[in-house]
Protein: Glycosyltransferase
Organism: Jiella flava
Amino acid sequence: MLTRFLRHLETASYASSVLSLLPFGALRSQIAKTCADVYSIEMSRKPWPSDLYQLGRVMGRIKPDVIHGWMYHGNLAATLGSLVCRALAPVIWSVHHSIADITDETPANRRLIQLSGRISSGTSAIVYCSRVAAEQHEAIGFDPRRTLVIPNGIDCNEFQIDASASARLRTELAIPTGRTIVGHVSRFHPMKDQANLVRALARLIGEGYDIQGVFVGEGHIDGTVRTLARELGIDQRITTIGPRADVSDYLAGFDLFALSSAWGESFSLATAEAMSCGVPAVVTGLGDCGQLVGKTGLVVPPRDTEALARGIASLVDLSQDERHSLGLSARRRVEQHFSIDNYVARHLELYQRVVEAQSSTARLA
């Protein structure tokens, strides 16, 4: 989401600098294409005062008009860095996480979230990608006066319907013609509950459904998904692929998309991308995922194998024409409500507003 946002900011003639707390890895080259200045503090896992000094020093060198944090650690760093360098620029936080039950979080994350809530009034705005996430964070102490909900945005030119994608994918992965492809795109993480999706697929295969699960993302090739598939006797019906830059080609080749997250999901980008490719989705009812799919998909409870299996079965049981029609509706829904153009425009309006408010405050002082 960040790289896509930066790319569109550049076309809007906004100069951006990206400051990462940890080493960039492969992401650096993508970000470097979208903005002139890319910095990495390379903080240790337990930050030292010297790390904060380095953070403030780089911020002071950039002299930003707006400081925009991205996710919990980035949000806290945005606030601390602005204090260290005594920047007058407004600070904005972005929250891309939902909290149905804070005990699902690690102890370290709980402390970070609670600390963030206590200092949240010092921001100019807190951008949430879902209404549910905003309400959940407000309930645990985040300042409601700073709330702004901006749903994630999809580049519908990048994620398009491709009538030939299914045939290409079947050829590449040796999936028989006529077998329904149930796709999932995400890194492996307990929060994503891919194990539950494998169990749901195993249940349907045991009932005689001719389906193939395709998992795309980091940690799947030799991880829990592969191991569980072997244990359940469906190893040949589960295809695991590592992270791919051409993920749109895979999404467009799926017959349906399954989101199995158990907690933490606020607004599923992968689901929206699949919808933009004309693929209907089954999602767990976390964050605004139900609002995302609307009537173009199905919503099931999280951590419920039977409910997830039945949701998938409902879409598999549709005819190809019915699934295609549902996919077209999903595509239109993304175009109308969740486009990257709308996402960028609302952020630019926010930047303008907080900069003008900061200037007015400075003049009054």
